[in-house]
Amino acid sequence: MHEYSIVGSLIDRVQQEAVLHGSTRVHRLHVKIGELAGVELDLLKTAFDTFRERTICEGAELAIDSVAAVWACPSCDRAIARGAVLRCDTCGRPARMIHGDEIILERIEMEAPDV
Amino acid sequence: MCETCGCGDPEIVPVEVQERILSDNDAQAAHNRHHFGDLAVLAINLMGSPGAGKTAVLEATARAAGGRLRLRAVSGDLATDRDADRLNAAGIRSTTITTGSACHLDARLVHHALHHAPCSDCDVFFIENVGNLVCPAIYDLGQAANVVALSVTEGEDKPLKYPVMFQKADLVLLTKVDLIPHLDFDVDAVEDALSRVMPDAKLLKVSAKTGEGIDAWLEWLEVRRPARRLDAKSLDHHGHHDHSLEHGHEHSHEHN
Description:
The structure holds two protein chains of two kinds. Chain A is 26% helix and 30% strand.
């Protein structure tokens, strides 16, 4: 259940940004989570719904962009099929993950302070 | 307030962050890695299911290493000191990181443990993670390599079921291989499964009971040992190093 500790880090980070921008209310967070990030999306949502109470994220929506894992040969860029051996048929080199292990806070939609 | 139409609604602005959510842990892990590097210590993050044989492998490692390698360890444990006690009895000076309900170690916990379990006089520092095939894989601890213990009683398909853990592994130790004659365990099948989740799959078959494969494991460790720095600039003659570089806070800990 490391999703709870990830949400803890996420809310801390959002709090820092809110202070930096003088905002007291956050509407939506955009996060990007890779298929091989080891993060269960439903658990992440549950953890967020639980932990956002009485924080800067209270009432905020968590928008998750999930990213499929993609592997390719680092030499010839040939894509490795899903479930296949992670080694290039042609070059024999171990595949490299192109994306799929992201755990990223992309963007925060927050209320701008009154000017 | 909205200045476009004067409706009175608050104006919502997007703030780009584009940062890893665990960036705090990453920074702490980088500090730990710097620390291990300064001390020329090989730090190994040993992971695996509960009961995979992590502690037994380390006990066998101590027996086989004799005086060849100076070993130390910290063991992540939810509630007891049992693993650290076993390792101490086997000759690996060891302490426990009690995690309570936490299912994994993070870089901060390891950093804290380093303050109480100095590693300057060892060659290899094992971080025996909490028994779990999911959560520990997410957290960088500052290790030089990830090693996953997978026992033959867990079944050949574990790598396919837990791809994140095995994808992060630099080496998989197939443990308890002395039991293979009593099981329907297919080593080729586990190697095939690994090759589909671990880009440069490496598997060593070991038995803590018979000692099979332990020499190959020791050799794997020895070739990864960082060279001792004779002119270690950041260490004074007591082995202290400068913590002002990355900590941002003052503290001291023993390096004896």
